[in-house]
UniProtKB/TrEMBL annotation:
Residue ranges that the Swiss-Prot or TrEMBL entry lists as coiled coil: none
Keywords assigned by UniProt, alphabetized: DNA damage, DNA repair
Pfam families assigned to the protein according to its UniProt record, in alphabetical order: HhH-GPD
Gene Ontology biological-process annotations: base-excision repair, AP site formation; DNA alkylation repair
Species, as recorded: Gluconobacter kanchanaburiensis NBRC 103587
Highest rank taxon of the organism: Bacteria
GO molecular function ontology, one term from the record: DNA-3-methyladenine glycosylase activity
PANTHER family the UniProt entry points to: DNA-3-METHYLADENINE GLYCOSYLASE
UniProt lineage: Bacteria, Pseudomonadati, Pseudomonadota, Alphaproteobacteria, Acetobacterales
The keyword DNA repair appears for this protein: yes
UniProt domain HhH-GPD: residue ranges: 43-203
Protein name per Swiss-Prot or TrEMBL: DNA-3-methyladenine glycosylase II
Amino acid sequence: MTDSLTVLGADPDLAAVIARIGPCTLRGDDGQEPYDALLRAIAGQQLHGAAARRIFGRLCLLGEQEDPDGPPPSPGRLLELSEETLRACGLSGNKLLAMRGVAQARLDGKIPSRSEAQSMTDEDLIAQLVTLRGVGRWSVEMLLMFTLNRPDIMPVDDFGVREGWRRIRRLELAPRPKVLKEETARFSPYRSTLAWYCWRVAEEGKKQAPNPLTA
């Protein structure tokens, strides 16, 4: 973390942000398997944090451990559950199909375990996982940052990151994703830390709690 703050802090605008916000507290390893993280991401799509947690907790109660704070059902168990049972968790038809697709993909070896993912590059993981129904690039980037502890992820499509960069650079408009990618390339290999600061800057002055995923 010291190296990343040294690199980022060489930029005057970012140095001011670091001084104001303090050290980065990015949680890079949440202990989940990629399969679990993808199911959580699907459950939370288009929902606020509290609602997403409730739905995912209900799903976890259907797992082998029957624990709302535990892991979700294993792939085999999830595929055995009826549509009625899964919908009772609060899942839409599209999310149900996406989760079943993720379960089957894990059984087929298309979703790696944590240990298997260690030998894959960021872009290889993104290319492989975005082929799954309901899994977009942003979801995989969050998995890379918060589950697999990858240090050089810049989610340029994320509104909060773009807004944070706009404020840091005192721009009139948030940059387009392509422009943001180009402007932040020089901060590699510490762009995950940079993204974390962009989120913090975007949330400054807001009354609601920070996003539970990116906090």
